[in-house]
Amino acid sequence: MANTQEIVSVLTESRVFPPPEDFSRRAHIRSMQDYQRLWDEAAKDPDKYWGDRAREELYWKEPFQTVLDWKPPHARWFVEGKTNLAYNCLDRHLPKLKDKPAILFEGEPGDRRAITYGELSQQVNRLANGLKSLGVKKGDRVGIYLPMVPEAAVAMLACARLGAVHSVVFGGFSAEALQDRMKDAGAKVLLTADGGWRKGAVVPLMKNVEAALPNAPSIEKVIVLTRTGDGKLPEGPKFVAWDALVKGQSDTCEPEWVESEHPLFILYTSGSTGKPKGVLHTTAGYAVNASLTTRWVFDLRDDDVYWCTADVGWVTGHTYVVYGPLMNGVTTIIYEGAPTQPGPDRFWDIIERYKATILYTAPTAIRAFMRLGDGPVKQHDLSSLRLLGSVGEPINPEAWMWYRDVIGGGRCPIVDTWWQTETGGIMVSPLPGATPTKPGSATFPLPGIHAEILDRDGKRVPKGQGGLLFVTKPWPSMLRTVYGDPERYVNTYFSELPGMYFTGDGARTDADGYVWLMGRVDDVVNVAGHRLGTAEVESALVAHPKVSEAAVVGRPDDLKGTALVAFVTLKQGNAPSEALKKELAVHVGKEIGAIARPDEIRFAEGLPKTRSGKIMRRLLRDVAAGKQSSQDTTTLEDLNVLAALRQTDE
Ligand code: WT7
């Protein structure tokens, strides 16, 4: 059971920024009255509200009859309907948008490509036909392990066209992480590249794939895109060159019309146990909300040049780089590399050259830019920007103000969007033409979204007090299950309060009803906008031959939001050393990926435990933060352990 007593709010932020008048005048939703009216409509008759939205947002091959079939905690949305997401992203736009750029791509080395809706459609169809020729069919799982190149979007859309279920693995993940995910998903085919560019160097994707393959036996074929090398394939019958596969394929491919609840993708995300969860999303409900939230929250117009900087390896890349913008027929920017390559102004250079109108990025990036000072920003004309977005973790008011003033020139509204891999789309966010914003608050739930702050008995907490964030009613883009582990779906999300989705986040509302997120309440930490289960890092550490036990906790960090601190006890005969610290950090990087590498490793003689042997992470959190603990230690088995840990403070 999550502990609400730990949630103490320290923020007092009183600034309010109403939407600029000229922004509101042209916006999709123009006032708080309009927002409230939509919210009330949705609350009064959710079937009508979501049914109307579904008919507006999607092309339906066959109409649905039932909006929602809810047998808690299992939802089926838009039952009996049939559609295809690739058709909705491409075909239906072609009569009008064939020659409009769908994707503006920039590689890290500076190579550029503009891909029109017409061209994107051809590429998707050719690849879909190529996949078909390898035997991929409706329901098969397909792995995608690519750099941020247009082919990542092409691959996702080709799967959607065939009704195959994609599972994208972030290109920064290691061979081990890739193999676990491919094995769990039972992927039949893997789409990858020889490498990708990052910070001027090659990310060795192919090498990782080769290391993963022996332990991912379901993979029959590996399709390899040439991005960084000479096009030579590794030896063996499994490898197929991407170019050779699509060459000569027809550029038409009849979409597979799938049922609304047909699985669309599996995306792995960290939980509080060691094993990542395969979050499963289905087709129509996800698509309806992706399309709707992209248009409303980013207030899309036809001439927008929209840039969401997330990688397709995360859910933000799925919903707000690929599906949401393409369903809305806008132009979306894809940039391959690091934000500061070759110089600290790369992002601002991109915005100036493409005249980007919308920028959606993460607080950790904003804080990193802030550190670099205003100089790199001032070298560029950012006057094309009209809206800014933030996602991934709470944004501190200082970073929010810098974002607004320095990047947005004081004229762009900011949408601080709260959501999760599991929610599929944005849940709590300002509507930029309607909502007066407060720096650091995600403001209000979108119409139809019942995000409520409750205590552990399910009672609403009074304003100003912290509680647990639940979503108390189903919504179309909610996850449907944990792939291959239906029990975990129920236990993780629906066991705190029956029938209500538990987010794992703490939150409070202020006197005006604004929602303020307060971070995770479980053993999950948010590092640089990405969720990491501390248990995952711990299990990587104890997999090292010299480690006996490990506990990993988060410590507040100016840049990353949270830094990872690992407390490690060594097996007998091993002595602590700086070299070993390095070795362990590298080891975790290899097991999971660089994002999971601990920022600090502390060796300990013992770890604080309860009498039943559970590691008391809450005490370690205080030690890591250098705080004297005011916490209850009556259940601690050996108080000396804690004292000893404090003495090892550097
Ligand atoms: C967790 C979800 C949503 C896509 C990126 C991360 C935190 C996310 C915000 C925000 C405060 C936020 C929450 C949430 N989070 N956005 N605007 N304000 N916290 O997806 O990996 O599924 O992580 O990120 O803690 O539970 P994710």
Automatic annotation (TrEMBL):
Residues that hold CoA according to the record: R198, K199, G200, A201, T316
Biological process, per Gene Ontology: acetyl-CoA biosynthetic process from acetate
Residues that, per the record, bind Mg(2+): V542, H544, V547
Residue stretches making up the Acetyl-coenzyme A synthetase N-terminal domain: 35-89
Modification after translation, per record: Acetylated. Deacetylation by the SIR2-homolog deacetylase activates the enzyme.
Family annotation (NCBIfam families): Ac_CoA_lig_AcsA, PRK00174.1
Name of the featured protein: Acetyl-coenzyme A synthetase
Organism encoding this protein: Corallococcus carmarthensis
